[in-house]
């Protein structure tokens, strides 16, 4: 395959960025999108040019680091992570636009790499349990209803990639925050912080400069792990319940 890539290049957070055009040839349909970028970078290095900076780690669809907007879609045309997107999703001769996440809360560090530490601060505000758990308990020591366990597991699948923010027309982080809140709030181990968790995490999310949620639904459509939109409504109910109980809001 021969492709034309239009890639966002930006030296640092303070510099102006622009799209640069590159032609790459010899791309196998079986390559992942990141492997295709590796080919581009080898070409640039051999030509004495600066390689394109992009984020990645496991390349197995687990860590969520591979955050790219491809032809206007978070992670590209398939509902998966960028590292699991293969070039067979494109056609020979295609022009592909590659950009970083676009959100004020995710400032560009360089080229396609953005700072997602706002997510870390949301987790630090309440995404933990304080109950001393010691070593791993016996599996049946704390019974959890099947429906609650499935609900928790469904939300625990969130990998914090930020596709929900990139896809949202408002740049909201409600799907990410709700996944982290709902994962813990439904389990017995998370009960002691149930109220403070949702209030503190939502407050931190708001302070980070994410946009407001209007339930457009783009976040759930872009989520590679399938976190449902109803996660947000569940968290909203938790927030209202907590605000009434502790007198905040």
Features:
alpha+beta; 5-stranded mixed beta sheet; 35% helix; two-stranded antiparallel ribbon
Write the layout of secondary structure elements.
Elements: E1 3-9, E2 18-24, H1 33-46, E3 69-70, E4 73-74, E5 95-99, E6 108-110, E7 113-114, H2 117-126, H3 146-156, H4 163-167, H5 174-185, H6 194-207, H7 218-222, H8 230-246
Parallel strand pairs: 1-5
Antiparallel strand pairs: 1-2, 3-4, 3-5, 6-7
Helix pairs in contact: 2-5, 2-6, 3-5, 5-6, 5-8, 6-8
The strand count comes to 7
Q: How far apart are the termini?
A: 56 Å
Structural class designation: alpha+beta
Mean pLDDT: 94
Largest sheet: 5 strands, mixed
Query: What global shape is seen?
Result: elongated
Name the helicity range. Answer: 25-40%
Report the β-strand fraction as a percent range. Answer: 5-15%
Can you walk through the features of this model?
This protein is an alpha+beta fold and 249 residues long. The chain is 35% helix and 11% strand. It is built from 8 helices and 7 strands; from the N terminus they run ββαβββββααααααα. It has helices spanning 33-46, 117-126, 146-156, 163-167, 174-185, 194-207, 218-222, 230-246; strands at 3-9, 18-24, 69-70, 73-74, 95-99, 108-110, 113-114. The strands form 2 sheets. A 5-stranded mixed sheet has the order 2-1-5-3-4. α5 runs antiparallel to α6 (194-207). The longest helix is centred in the C-terminal third of the chain and has 17 residues, at 230-246. It is elongated and about 60 Å long. It starts with a strand and ends with a helix. 35% of the residues are buried.
